[in-house]
Amino acid sequence: MVQKQFSGLLGSRSRNQKLRIGMTQIMSVALAGMLLVFFTVSKFIQSNTIIRSEPTAKNNNGHNLQMQSSKISVPEPRSGRQSKNNELMQPEPQPDSNQSLNQTQKQNSFHFIISSDCTSYQRWETLTQLHSAQSVQQCGRFTWIVSGCLDDEDEHAGKGKGGAHSDVLTHSSLLQEVEKHFPRVTISNEEVAFHIGRDVSLAMDNSHLKESDASRDCHSIHPHVHFTPDFSDMSKYPGPFSDGKKRRSFVNRQNKTMCGNFGNIYKFNNKPNGLHHWAVDFLRKEGTDGGEAVVLVDPDFLFLNKFEFPAGNDMVAPGKPAAAKYGLGGQFLDFNLTRICERAPLSQSDSAQNKPCPFQTISNGDVHKYYSAGAPYIIHIEDVLAFSQRWVELVPPTYDEYPLLYAEMFAYSMAAADLNLKHNLIQGLFTGCMTSWPHTHGVEEHEALEISAKNYANLFENPVSGASFDPESGGAVSCFLPPLSPPPFLHYCQRYLFATPYTKDAMEDRVVHFFAKRRVDHDILDCNRKVVLEPFVEDKSTKVPHGSERNWHTLAVCATVRAINFAKSKAGCPIKTD
User: Fold this and answer.
1) Exposure letters 429-442 (e unless 16+ CB within 10 A, then b)
2) Residue 186's beta-bridge partner residues?
């Protein structure tokens, strides 16, 4: 019995021992499995660790070296990064190299081109524009293309023969006046320089300008003058009207026949031809290495602000010009485009004579999107030569189809379409003419507009000796009180007027003040004329603008009058203010 019990006890112990051994083995296996899983996960995490900085080692010269790592480097999340206390932080702003480059280019690569005839009328306009550019510290180079000057021996032949009964000038008489305002003016024509006794070395090479341009501080302007022949005589271009026996006419969409008053003298043909003449000379001397953006403007433009591209607009590049957006639209699509193309085929080869020009097939929508352009035109220097050549070719046949003011502008659009130069049409580059007045943003800017206009009008309601002009005021820019910020340019091609008392509509005791460029004496900048320019006076019954438009008209009068007086003062002329 005892032996059986003992045997049974031994059997029970043996079973328990086997059970304990089995359990131990199971736990060992489980533990090993857990360790394996843990090790695997650890290796995975380690291999995917985000690297914020790499350890460094020293090379033989003691300089830091970036150590190579097999770990994966993941860029910082765009939404933010973790601080030491695990709070989400905003990403650090990274400098945009392209944006920085564009900002630099905006300040340093503009080459402003002013194209004019050689008259006393457009002389005062251009000199006033140059002074206005200096008053806003506009950076860039300035070239004045002057077409149609007389030889010195023909000086008296030009009396009263220019636009607005102005005088046609000689090369010397124009330069003498320019030098009073800008003593460091240079010219680019070797033949003209030699003929009038100027420094031919400066005309043969423009490299002397580059060093001064690189170091200039934008406070002073040293204009460069380029003389060209007169291209306004349209009888020199073959066509059905060149002999002057037939009159050009155009039938518009309302079936109204329109005849121009220019006849065979179309002075606006100087603009494309003058630009091309300059481009040939400039590229021969300097090439396109500078990558300049050529900005083409008319003489009757004033700088009200620094010219630069509004936010969101890219700089021009080869094949990507820009311009102000005008409302001319696709009127030229009604011209006889086939006839224009036949007279000015895109290629002069025999095989291309009957091929259509691209401007014949563009849509009205594309015209409004890319080609309804006007000054300021901004073209990359690499495009200027080919574009100006095509523009030159298209003006004569376009003028024969449309003998009116804007023929050269429509020819510009067609030339751009032919060369697939789609323009970035920018709003807000100018005001005053062929565009709407600027919109004020916010109460403060609107109030500044009102106060600026009333302040100028008050000078005539309560006149104080000398108050209408302060030589130190800065010219046109002094008309605009902050935070009112006008666009870069005022294009003063129309009449601007306001009445005083400014806040009353009553006709009694009313005086209408206005500015019109053709009323300005052509020798206004001559030091012999010591009295400042004041707004002209109109009949009191003349209708004047109201509301915001009245304020802008008032400031346009202010800007033009003060800009002219400012230019006069900068020539060192003594000025009477009473």
Assistant:
1) bbbbbbbebbebee
2) 224
H runs (alpha helix) in 205-269: 207-215
Which residue has tokens 């899983």? Answer: 37
Place of tokens 């009295």: 531
- Within 8 A by CB and 6+ apart from 312, the residues are none
Q: What is the pTM of this model?
A: 0.79
Residues 6 or more apart in contact with residue 514 via CB below 8 angstroms: 495, 496, 497, 498, 535, 536, 537, 538, 542, 557
Half-sphere exposure of 567 (CA within 13 A, CB side): 29
At 86, list the tokens: 């695990």
Taking only the tens place, the pLDDT of each residue in 191-223 is 888 888 887 666 655 544 554 443 355 778 889
Q: Which helix (H) or strand (E) holds 116?
A: strand 110-117
> Which residues, 6 or more positions from 366, have their beta carbon under 8 angstroms from its beta carbon?
417
Which residue type sits at 411?
A: A
Cα R_g (the chain), whole angstroms: 37
Strands of 229-318 (E only): list them.
Answer: 250-251, 257-258, 293-297, 301-303
pLDDT, tens digit, 9 for 90 and up, residues 181-197: 999 899 988 888 888 88
User: Of 365, 294, 371, which is closest to residue 325 (Cα–Cα)?
Assistant: 371
Percent of the chain residues topping a pLDDT of 90? 56
Decide if 318 contacts 365 (C-beta within 8 A): no
Q: Over the stretch 230-255, which tens digit does the pLDDT of each residue have? A: 999 999 999 999 998 999 999 988 89
Q: Residue 16: what residue type?
A: N
pLDDT band at 490 (very low <50, low <70, confident <90, very high): very high
